């Protein structure tokens, strides 16, 4: 824009508004509400301030109806807003898109940011999830040693499967030191390799109480674990970052205990089924052995000398009958072959061929004579025709009609008076002879 351009106040405010929107866009910020007003239009107007500064804010009706509560003066809130300019007064302000109480709102924002970050890195991908072992003998529990969650887990494990061994890795599950302790216990359990599966969790509470399981250090420790991990944090409606990274998510600590244990009644039923299978397998084995012994006995009976002699005699009689049948069949085949060859010999006798080829020779001779006679007749006819054609164009025939042919000394036919000069000798061919003349006069007159 040139320095001598003249702007109106409206143009200036529009330019500043566009600059603010383009340079800053949407932002998140936290502050205290003051001067809150709600006119009949349904829009909200208030000031957002902290210890040293304040800014005017507007939240229009189509945005504030989704908020779910009415803000109060003095309340700390977290807002998502666009920076803009109110052109009528030239005041810059915030247009609020979202508004929520500051405490839970900040934590929820941190939760969503970490969730998106870890998801983009692939920590939630199903390809990295490990399945629970089929035969779990030892269960590791990472939780508070004094919490109700540990009591519930142990009670259910003891009721469902008393044979399971339980190893407790005590840790804080709430407070600033809790995330590092939880991650440390996961690492210790992986180093010791003394359990088949780990339960990591605690009982229910507010989002602040469960926040240790939303920390990045805990999420990365769970992802790096070689042991399969069951996440059991809070109640069924509670979700933490640990739930998304863990190999299996249980709705509650009690549900986690049921996942990693087998009910003793079901185990008894399973043993009873296996006992039935074992009995059936033994019966089948004994039956197969009896069949084997019976077959051996039958083979032993079949190898008795008398049985062998009877068997050999039977084979001899069978072979004798087969030999007689084979001889009869052979004689019949030879007789049929002899008759067939005799017929073929008669069919190819030389006498028949001599008569046949003699007749064909006579036919060919007659065809040759006829062809030669025809070729001779055609040749004579062509000779007469060509002779007649030759005579019609012969110079001698021209001479017979009284004409002559005159040539110069080089035997070239004279067709024009320009070909000769006075004194030249010329030759004139007539029917009965030739005349030699000398040109004494040339008359170029044409007739």
TrEMBL record:
Residues 123-436 form the Exonuclease VII large subunit C-terminal domain. InterPro entries: Exonuc_VII_L, Exonuc_VII_lsu_C, OB-fold_nuc-bd_dom. It comes from the Bacteria. It is an enzyme of class 3 (hydrolase). Keywords: Cytoplasm, Exonuclease, Hydrolase, Nuclease. It catalyses: Exonucleolytic cleavage in either 5'- to 3'- or 3'- to 5'-direction to yield nucleoside 5'-phosphates. Belongs to the XseA family. Bidirectionally degrades single-stranded DNA into large acid-insoluble oligonucleotides, which are then degraded further into small acid-soluble oligonucleotides. This is Exodeoxyribonuclease 7 large subunit. It comes from Gilliamella apicola. The gene is xseA.
């Amino acid at each position: 824009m040139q320095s001598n351009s003249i702007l109106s106040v409206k143009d200036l405010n529009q330019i500043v508004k566009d600059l603010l929107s383009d340079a800053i866009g949407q932002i998140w910020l936290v502050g205290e509400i003051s001067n809150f007003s709600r006119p009949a239009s349904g829009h909200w107007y208030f000031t957002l301030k902290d210890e040293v500064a304040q800014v005017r804010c507007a939240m229009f009706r189509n945005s504030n109806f989704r908020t779910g509560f009415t803000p109060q003066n003095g309340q700390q809130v977290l807002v998502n807003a666009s920076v803009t300019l109110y052109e009528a007064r030239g005041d810059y302000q915030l247009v609020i898109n979202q508004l929520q109480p500051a405490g839970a709102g900040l934590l929820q924002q941190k939760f969503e940011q970490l969730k998106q970050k870890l998801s983009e890195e692939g920590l939630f991908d199903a390809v990295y999830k490990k399945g629970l072992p089929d035969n779990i003998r030892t269960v590791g529990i990472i939780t508070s040693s004094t919490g109700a969650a540990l009591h519930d887990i142990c009670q259910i494990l003891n009721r469902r499967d008393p044979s399971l061994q339980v190893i407790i890795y005590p840790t804080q599950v709430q407070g600033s030191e809790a995330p590092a302790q939880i991650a440390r216990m996961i690492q210790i359990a992986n180093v010791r390799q003394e359990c088949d599966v780990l339960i990591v969790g605690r009982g229910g509470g507010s989002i602040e109480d469960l926040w240790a399981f939303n920390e990045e250090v805990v999420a990365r420790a769970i992802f790096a674990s070689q042991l399969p991990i069951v996440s059991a944090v809070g109640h069924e409606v509670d979700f933490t970052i640990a739930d998304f990274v863990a190999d299996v998510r249980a709705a509650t600590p009690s549900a986690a205990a049921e996942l990693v244990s087998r009910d003793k009644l079901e185990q008894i039923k399973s043993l009873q089924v296996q006992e039935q299978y074992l009995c059936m397998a033994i019966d089948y084995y004994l039956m197969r052995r009896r069949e084997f012994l019976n077959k051996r006995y039958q083979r032993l009976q079949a190898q008795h000398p008398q049985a062998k002699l009877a068997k050999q005699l039977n084979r001899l009689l069978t072979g004798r009958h087969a030999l007689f049948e084979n001889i009869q069949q052979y004689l019949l085949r030879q007789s049929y072959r002899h008759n067939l060859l005799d017929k073929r010999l008669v069919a190819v006798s030389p006498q028949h061929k001599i008569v046949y080829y003699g007749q064909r020779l006579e036919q060919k001779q007659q065809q040759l004579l006829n062809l030669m006679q025809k070729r001779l007749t055609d040749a004579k006819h062509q000779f007469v025709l060509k002779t007649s054609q030759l005579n019609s164009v012969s110079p001698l025939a021209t001479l017979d009609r009284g004409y002559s042919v005159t040539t110069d000394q080089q035997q070239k036919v004279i067709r024009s008076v320009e070909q000769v000069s006075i004194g030249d000798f010329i030759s004139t061919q007539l029917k009965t002879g030739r005349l030699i003349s000398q040109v004494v006069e040339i008359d170029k007159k044409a007739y």
